[in-house]
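User:
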Amino acid sequence: MAITLDSTIADLLREKPESAATLQSFGMGCLGCAIANNETIREAAMVHGIPLEELAKKLGL
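Assistant: Predicted structure:
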């Protein structure tokens, strides 16, 4: 499965579990919560006030 900015946090973590450390470094601590199942990477960046391009680069997207 190709991970994009419109993939959910849960999909990202399934495909690239090592990305949890990157997400946590940006202040996303609730990676296992119910919201992660439906929230996209793009939405999470917006909600947490994270520059989308910076997050995408760090995640290798």
